[in-house]
Amino acid sequence: MSTVDYLNVSIHGYACEVFVNRAPILRTPVDVPYTAIPSVSEWLVSGDNEIAVRIDAIAPPAATADPLSPRRLIVQRCVGPLGEIVPAGEDQPIDGLTYAPAPDDPGPTLPLRIAYEFRLPPGPTWAWQTAAILSLDASTTAELLMFLDALHADLALGDIPGLLSRQRIKFAELAPLYGMTPESARAGLLQQFTELSKDGAWTVEPLRPDDVVLHLCCDGRVVEPRTRDDQPVLRGQAADGNAWSLPVFISRIDGMFEVVR
Fold first, then answer.
1. Secondary structure string (H, E, C) spanning 54-80
2. pLDDT in tens, the chain (261 residues)
3. Which burial class, exposed, middle or buried, applies to 223 when counting CB atoms under 10 A from its CB (0-12, 13-18, 19+)?
4. Please, are residues 127 and 258 in contact by the beta-carbon 8 Å criterion?
5. From the centroid of its chain, how far is CA 244?
6. CB-based burial label for 237 (10 Å; 0-12, 13-18, 19+)
7. DSSP 85-96
8. Quick one: 36 exposed, middle or buried, by C-beta within 10 A (0-12, 13-18, 19+)?
9. Alpha-carbon distances, residue 88 vs 39, 78, 125, 232 (angstroms)
10. pTM score, two decimals?
11. CA-to-CA distance for 79 and 183, rounded, in angstroms?
């Protein structure tokens, strides 16, 4: 049976960001409990790996006094069957990290980074692992904004095949991980966007360069663009009124920018 690697995340009272091999996986609010089970197979590599959490803010004890949801920070690495939901509480953790200071601990200097490492057997080498290392100088930033503008234009025009053509590496690498072919993965996303945009009754938020923040990650080989209020830059409202978004991670491959995740 095929399996997938995922994180079992349970955090309350900490505003933080979780990383796998320096790729940002999720961000948590400081004031409400947060649980998630994100898949991370596409960010794991052969040999040495690292899972890390950067704590940016800590809620005061009074804000998390609920005995049913105490202050906590737990990130576990798990493996589960592909395509199946593991019932709550039945995850099989392989390893992980927990931050649990003593009640009288004066508190750390923030931001605080905690991490652990583990090794994996040989597997695929991802395109982002050998991508060019980027520096966000003026010319590179301008080129990235042009690339994002092209992605945004495809969405705004409803040219979903054009949008998908810019994600060939993403489909080639991720589809086999999740029991699909690149062709079936593309077809599935095409169907999703067809539903989102049916009858033209959807919206695409404007792309404003002054609102785009480019986050370098994975040792400078990957860029994650987000808005200043920490949302994906490609987003909008679907025909049914629900919000949609398309997070993208970009690398320079053979001299060209490509969506790799």
1. EEEEECCHHHHCCCCCCCEEEEEEEEE
2. 578 899 999 999 999 999 999 999 999 999 899 999 999 999 999 999 999 999 999 998 766 566 766 789 999 999 988 766 666 666 788 999 999 888 778 889 999 999 999 999 998 899 999 999 999 999 999 999 999 999 999 998 888 888 899 999 999 999 999 889 999 999 999 898 888 877 777 899 999 999 999 999 999 999 999 999 999 999 999 878 889 999 999 999 999 999 999
3. buried
4. yes
5. 15
6. middle
7. PPPTT---EEEE
8. middle
9. 16, 13, 32, 28
10. 0.91
11. 26
Written as one letter, the residue type at 98 is T
Strand order in the sheet with 34-36: 34-36, 3-12, 72-81, 93-98
Residue 62 tokens, joined: 């009074």
9: Cβ–Cβ under 8 A, 6 or more apart, which residues? 18, 26, 28, 34, 35, 36, 37, 38, 74, 75, 76
- Using alpha carbons, select from 206, 192, 190, 191 the residue that is nearest to residue 242: 192
Of 9, 94, 4, 12, give the one whose Cα is nearest residue 52. 9
Angstrom distance (rounded) from CA 69 to CA 169: 41
